Structure formats: C-alpha cells, structure tokens
Amino acid sequence: MSFVSYLINGISLGSVYAIIALGYTMVYGIAKMLNFAHGDVIMIGAYVVLLAVTGAGMPPVVAVLIAVVFCTILGVAIERIAYRPLRNASSSLAVLITAIGVSYLLQNVALLIFGANTKSFTSVVSVPAIKLADGQLTISGETIVTIISCIVIMVGLTLFIRKTKAGQAMRAVSEDKGAAQLMGINVNATIALTFAIGSALAAVAGALLCSAYPTLTPYTGAMPGIKAFVAAVFGGIGSIPGAMIGGILLGVIEIFGKAYISSQIADAIVFGVLIVVLIVKPTGIFGKNIQEKV
Amino acid sequence: MKKMNKITRNNLITYLMVIGIYIVAQVLVMTGSISSLLKGLLVPLCAYVILAVSLNLTVGILGELSLGHAGFMCVGAFTSAFFSKCMVEVIPTAGVRYFLALLIGAVCAGICGILIGIPVLRLKGDYLAIVTLAFGEIIKNVVNILFIGKDSAGFHFSTKDSLSLGLEEGGKIIINGPQGITGTPKDSTFTVGVILILITLFIVQNLIYSRSGRAIMAIRDNRIAAESIGINITKYKLMAFSISAALAGVAGVIYAHNLATLTAQPKNFGYNMSIMILVFVVLGGIGNIRGSILAAIVLTLLPELLRGLNDYRMLIYAVVLIIMMLFNWSPKAVEWREKYTAKLRSSRKKNTKEAA
Question: Which of A89, A98, A267 sits opposite B321 (nearest CB)?
Fold first, then answer.
C-alpha cells in the first residue's frame, strides 16, 4: 500500500509542478525568455492568500481569487518594467540577468516585509479526505483538489490556445514575432497576456503548494520554480502537454527518491534528471527539433 | 624604453592596480588603522576577486551565464580541505601542502567543469544557467550527506551518519556530513591570496588575447558565423568554461584554508553566493576584468563600512542587477546614450571651433 500512497503523493506534488511549469513553458514559448521570477510570484501569491485568510478573515476561495488578481497585476508589471525594455536587446544575457534580478528583488522585498521566519499556512482546501481499501489508503482533500484543478487548468488552457482569437495570436507570436506584427497582431499585448495567465497560474500553484506543505518563507517559491523549469524541459519546453507530463513525472520521481533513497538527496536526483534529459534528448518528450535559421 | 603595445600596457595597469591595493592594505594593517573585522575580510576578499574574474571569463568572454560558480568553489574547497586535513602530518611544510592543495582544488573543480560543460555547452544559452544552478545545488546536497572517516584500515565512507562509518578506536572523522570539515590548517594568508589573484589575472588576460581567446569571443558574438569558418565551438566553449571552473576552485581553496570549520550552507556555497559573484561581474562591467576586481572590493567592503546598509544589501544587489541591465542593454537606453554623446561631442567641437 505504501507504494500506491507514494505514487499518489508524487502525482499530487507533480500536479503542482505541472501548473507552475505551464506558466514557465508559455512564457518561454512566446517571449523566448526564462522567467526566473516565476517561482517567486508563487511565493508572493501564497503570502497574499495567507494575509487574506488570517489577516482579513476572508473565506479561502475569495483569498485565492485576490491572490490571482494580485499576481496577475504583478506579472504584467514585471513584464512591463523589467522585461519589455530589453525585448530587442542585442544580448540575450541581458534579459536573463534582469530576470534573476527580479527574482532576487521579490525574495528580498518579501524578506523585508514578512521577515525570515517560517509562517504556518492553513490549508485553503475544505474537501474531506477519501479512505480506500478499508482505510489503509488515504487520499487527502488537498491531493484531490490539486489533481482536479491541474486537469481543469490544462484542458482550459488548451482550449483557450486552440479556439480563441487571443490564443491564435499567441501561437502566431511564438512562431514569428515580426510576421505576427505584420499581420496586425499586437505583440506587446499578447506577451503581456501570456505573463498575466502565467502569473495567475502561479498564484493558484502557490495556494495549492502551501496547502499541501503548510509552511511559508520568502524562499518557498525558489526551489519549486526551478524544479518546474526542469519539468518543462523534461516535457519539451513550449509544449503544454509536455509541461503536464513532465511535471507529474518529476513529482513522482522526487517522492520516490525521498521515500526509497534519501530525503536529503531527492533534490539532487531531480536535477540529475535534468542533466540526463539534456544529454539524451535535449528537446524533451514532446519537444520539436527547431532548425536554426542563418 | 621600448614602446609597449596597447594590450600589454592594459594588462600591466591591472597588475599594478592589484599590487597598489595590496600595498595600501598592508600599510593599513601594519599601522593598525583598520579594524580586526576588516582584517578578517582580507583573505575572503581575495577569494571573491578571483571568483569575480573567473566568472567574468564565462559571462563576459564566453557569453554564457553560469549560476553554479559557488558549486565549483565548493568542490575546490572541500577536496582541498580534505587533502590538507589528511596530509597535515605527512607533509609538515605548510607551503608545499598548500601548493598541492591548490592544485588538487583547481583540478577537481576543472574536471567538474568539463563534466557539466560537455552536455550543456552543446545547447544554447538559457540551459547553461539552469543546469549550472542545478549543479550547484547537487554539490551542496551531496556534500551535506557525505561522511568520511579514516582509521588504520583506510578510509570509510557513508551517506547516513558518522556512527555507520564503523571506525576503529582512534579513527578520526574527516568529513562529518552537515557539520563539514573541522580543523583544516589555516594556510591562507593575504599575501598568498594576492599572489593567486595575480596568477589568475595572468591566466585570464593571456587567454583573452590569445588565438583561443579570439575564437571564444568570436563564438560569443556570432555562433553560426564562427562555426562556418571552422572554429570548433564545443572545444573552445569547454576550454573557457573549465578554466573558469578551475579558477573558482582555487578561490574555494583560499576560502577553505581560512576557516576553522568548513560547511556547505546556502550562505557560502549556494545560489546566493553565485548571485553575489554575478553582481560583482555585472557592476564591474561584463567583460571588463579590472571592473570585476574593483566591484568585488567595493561591494565587499561597503556593507562593512556602512553597517546600516547590511539589512538592505541583498535588495541593493537585486536593484543593481536590474538597473545595470536596463541601462546598458535596453535598445532605447542605448539609443538615448548614443544621441546624448553625439550631441555632447558636436557641441564640444563647436566650442573648440569658436575658440579658434
């Protein structure tokens, strides 16, 4: 039974990674940049939820909605202030370093406002746990909600990108920015929309992550953010189903590593996966091989 | 005196600058006009300068971003501290022992650089940043679960705890997991550190202006064009990256041989340290070796001199990164600067004409 419960825990953690990885993969696919600050937006989202629930006494659902709105605004603001001025910069290093700067800024602002102390987080999920196999196997409410919201988000996002005008614009921009602009697509607005969606997902992920692991510090988001990027690379960066599968696989690998090998080395195993994937199949599971234009 | 060419003169200025700073610092120490706190910072400062120069080789000359520089430093620190602690009775001469420790630290870090570089340098840009970051975390994790002890039967390894090493009576623990290595001989001095800085500068500056250095810079400027004229991209990238890693290992050796207890914590060998080095490089000017040295010195000493600044130090680092990048690389800022300097130049010309 312990194997099955590890598997379920892994899928649950993996679903959170998948939601974060979706944000990463969309931004990477469209703006062609690595948004290092994505993980820290998760942390900010979680703090907003915490403040809204314990500080203002709001019901959890409202708190999550507030966090989503806040993170969306934050994400768009980051894009506008820090990333957009560098979009046509001659050095790709510049954007990368700015993104690291933004990540560091968010962490340290949170550190100054909320302090370095670990805050305990009360779960925003009120779904009761399910007991299976005569009570030997318990699936917590957090796990159920996480997995379901992950599926809903993936289906919703796929439909949005396939069926709507804005989604079509996104695909066009990711294909070729210049050509998209010639066709009358507002590239700036499309990229801002991508950041908005990514950051909104980050807020949801923050609430789910802290419900499952109820502690919160200014560094909470950094590690899951990096692991979600590993998941996005694993699944093939730029691909939505890739981010989902990559995220879930990574979550399962991490939980199994913790359970069967050593809890301290689990992170190293996750990063080992990244290096192996890059050696064996750099484009990931669902990635396409892009020929470079000269 | 024969007329020197521009490159030699430029290099010479850098060496003289380091020597000048060294003399000033030594005079201040001799006259006792600096606090013991600052005196304690001198040796780590040498390590930071070497780290900044070596990271500038990766970021400025090779044009790739490495976020695991602290990881290479960690490799150098732990391998050399391990060596020194084992050899403290076998080789009693501090100088010989320290020299060998330096070699071991540099070689081990360099090998790690090659191992990480091979899979990643074939890929483009952003991956290197994330993989080096991952590598740094792996190293930190591995060191924290490593237990090594030694008794008459030889070395014992474990990944659980010090008891499971199964040491005989009188055996001693060398690496004690999260507690790290204690009792490394304190072989690092400020003078040795400065000599190592000069050697680092010699290696890096000669590399930059050599044939290989020009190939590396050609790859940075245009990968495809460089490839098309027959430059072996992987070879040169790997060369720059592993030299940079080996030098970071040297910095680790200096750092380790200055501490009573060496532990792998996020503070000294984690992401934060890598970012700090990156800030030195960015503030000093990407690709500007002399700038890296000055930035490392200023940013290490400033928070110590202005105590109140210490709480905001990290915040300032973050803002420095963002503003420097926006100012230097944003197409609009570049355009504005060019216009401004053009205006300045033309007005100056006018003035000289009027004066004439």
Answer: A98
Beta strands in chain A (DSSP E): 119-120, 130-132, 137-139, 215-216
- In total, the C-beta contacts within 8 angstroms joining chain A to chain B are 130
* Average pLDDT of the segment spanning B256-280: 86
Whether residue A255 is predicted with pLDDT greater than 90 in this model: the reply is: yes
Taking the CA atoms of residue B80, residue B82, residue B84 and residue B86 in that order, the dihedral angle to the nearest 10 degrees is -150
pLDDT tens for each residue of B305-324: 777 777 788 888 889 889 98
pLDDT in the model for residue B124: 67
Interface test with B, best of A33, A78, A86, A87 (most B CBs within 10 A): A86
**Chain B residues closer than 8 Å to A97 by CB:** 65, 278, 282, 321, 325
- Find the closest chain A residue to B266 by CA distance: A219
pTM: 0.88
Q: Check CB contact under 8 Å for B318 and A101.
A: yes
Per residue in B65-124, pLDDT (tens digit) is 888 899 999 999 999 999 988 888 788 788 888 999 999 999 999 999 998 888 777 776
Q: What ipTM describes this predicted complex?
A: 0.84
- Distance, in Å, from the CA atom of B352 to the CA atom of B356, rounded to the nearest integer, reads 6
Angstrom distance (rounded) from CA B196 to CA B80: 15
The identity of residue A213, as a single letter, is: Y
Q: Which residues partner with B147 through β-bridges?
A: B158, B176
How many residues can be counted in chain A? Answer: 294
Please, which pLDDT band fits residue B170 given cuts at 50, 70 and 90?
low
**Token pair belonging to A212:** 């499952």
